[in-house]
Amino acid sequence: MHNALMADHYTELLKLLREAATLSSMAELLGWDQETMMPEKAGTYRAEELAMISKLAHQRATDPRIGDLLAACEADGALRANSAAQANLREIRRDYDRSLRLPEELVAEISETSSRAIEAWKHAREQSDFKSFLPWLERQLHLQQRKAECYGVPPGGELYDALLEDFEPGLSSAELERIFGPLKTKLTPLIDGVTSSGRHPPQEALQLDPPLEQQRAFHRRVLERIGFDFGAGRVDTSTHPFSSGLGPGDTRITTRFPRGGFADALSSTLHEAGHALYEQGLPKEQHYGQPLSEPLGLGIHESQSRLWENHVGRSRAFWVWALPEAKRIFGGACDPISVDALYRAINTARPSLIRIESDEATYNLHIMLRFDLERAMIRDDLRPADLPSAWNRRIEQDLGLTVPDDRHGCLQDIHWAMGSFGYFPSYTLGNLYAAQFWEALLLAVPDLEQQISRGEFGALLGWLRREIHALGRQLAAAELCRRLTGRALDHEALMRHLEGKFGSIYNLSRR
Ligand code: ZN
Predict the structure, then answer these.
(1) I need a labelling partner for 266 at 20 to 30 A (CA). Which of 34, 304, 322, 337 fits?
(2) Rounded Cα–Cα distance for residues 273 and 266 (Å)
(3) Cα of 302 from ligand 1 centre, angstroms
(4) Cβ atoms of 215 and 259 closer than 8 Å
């Protein structure tokens, strides 16, 4: 629809939505600053700033004027005939009705509590002191239960589903069980096979830890090549890497340089870059503030990061191109490393305690246990005070490991401190979508691996841009998945990927 022909009520509606989005992006910018630059003592005041801006953003998003304009647009035959406008209106309605369900004080209280709980969590994690975090976890859990009650339990569902809807629109915990159940059944023998194979790929290739400046230069080289727009984004350092799609022309990522070597650091950067490429590919210049320019749920967002991190960054083809680049930048330090040794080292599978350090196979077990535990907490089947022992038991059962302290156990992740209950499943959904999309990509671009081994990523990014990024929220995630892959989401493509890779590295016999 041409601008001049757009109904006034639609134009005004979009203007109000843009203002609400602008306020939200300011809050996100303050959050970015808190994680990257903010001095430690500013935490309490930052909480106040964030609470105020979140309150304003919520007021804007729930302005009764939006309701009036929306009703006028929904009754407008010309708008109903336009499929993009129709998708926009459907999603605006969903968001508007949902945000109306949350009282303003609750939104402000959650925002302020989260900000302070994050500071408490950082301290508790450092000291491995669960007791000092417990009151914050209890408070946050209580707020999240209230939030879920305000949203309301969907028909046939449970309280947890109301929170899940924030991250995975249209998905229920029963559906998650349907997908996760067979995945766990197949993963367990694969991991057992790897563990009992007695093979341990040499790790020397990973020990190399070049000076930070050289590593930053290497990351920049890779990011430029895969299509990250530095004119519209930046890369900084934080304890917990994350990405922020702040607004048109402003997409930021952070990374970290752990003393675990250059390949691990690049992996983390590629992950966040996958998120960032999605944000940079959304049509924000035209549709900022509207669902048409917004990401389609976290699972799809995560599929973009996993695709670049795992299907690209942990492939042999990628390192055929990237290792010579690294050698050039690191100046001799990694000359003895071969592509094959590096490929095996970065694809080592071994049960470990820390989610973000785990391999592609065991990673999903970390997610499933978090899903079960947070769901139990929301149901009041698990008291926060009992979280450490429940956590440690599951790690023992699922991964055969003993948790030495809570820092390596239930205090390792920021999510519950942030109030993000219902978020964890998105990570495994991302792995599942990525594997299913990757198979579709290989059909669409048959010489994809050869292109990657030459450092050519244009066809890959082009497909993602066209088939996924450009759509915003026009389709539901389940529809998008069917359209691109011909099937509903399931465990099969991911298991083919993992069994193929680890089967050959660990010489496992095919079952
Ligand atoms: Zn991610």
Answers:
(1) 34
(2) 10
(3) 5
(4) no
* 28: its two tokens: 């996100």
Planar angle of CA 210, 455, 251, nearest 5 degrees: 75
Cα radius of gyration rounded to whole Å, the chain: 23
Among residues 28, 272, 279, 374, which one is catalytic? 272
- Ligand 1 midpoint to CA 168 (Å): 14
CA of 347 relative to ligand 1 center, distance in Å: 19
pTM of the model: 0.94
C-alpha atoms less than 13 angstroms from C-alpha of 389 in its C-beta half-sphere: 5
Residue 74 Cα, ligand 1 centroid: separation in angstroms?
Answer: 35
Q: Which tokens in the block code for residue 350?
A: 């071994």
Distances, alpha carbon 65 to alpha carbons 17, 94, 168, 251, 401, in Å: 11, 16, 28, 30, 56
135-to-45, 261, 271, 406, 412 alpha-carbon distances in Å: 21, 37, 33, 16, 17
Instruction: Tell me the per-residue pLDDT of 153-208, one tens digit each, with 9 for 90 and over.
Output: 999 999 999 999 999 999 999 999 999 999 999 999 999 999 999 888 888 888 88
| Residues bordering ligand 1, an ion, CB closer than 5 Å | 302, 305
Digit-coded pLDDT (tens) for 274-314 = 999 999 999 999 999 999 999 999 999 999 999 999 999 99
User: Within 13 Å of residue 413, how many CA atoms lie on the same side as its CB?
Assistant: 18
> What is the rounded CA–CA span in Å between residue 27 and residue 321?
39
Distance CA 274, CA 259 (A): 23
List, in order, residues 6 or more apart from 16 with CB less than 8 Å away.
Answer: 60, 63, 65, 66, 69
272 noted as active-site residue: yes
What would the DSSP string read from start to end of 155-220?
TT--HHHHHHHHHSTT--HHHHHHHHHHHHHHHHHHHHHHHHT------HHHH----HHHHHHHHH
Residue found by looking up tokens 């009705």 in the block: 97
Question: What span, in angstroms and rounded, lies between the C-alpha atoms of 37 and 279?
Answer: 22
Length of the chain: 511
Q: How many Cβ atoms are within 10 Å of 149's Cβ, its own excluded?
A: 12
Q: What is the distance in A from the centroid of ligand 1 to the CA of 273? A: 9
* 138 CA to centre of ligand 1 in angstroms: 26
Q: How far apart are CA 387 and CA 399, in angstroms?
A: 17
Question: What confidence score (pLDDT) does residue 510 get?
Answer: 58
**Residues facing 255 on adjacent strands:** 237
Q: How far is the CA of 68 from the centre of ligand 1 (A)?
A: 37
Residue 83 CA from chain centroid, whole number: 29
Report CA dihedral (140, 145, 147, 148) to the nearest 10 degrees.
140
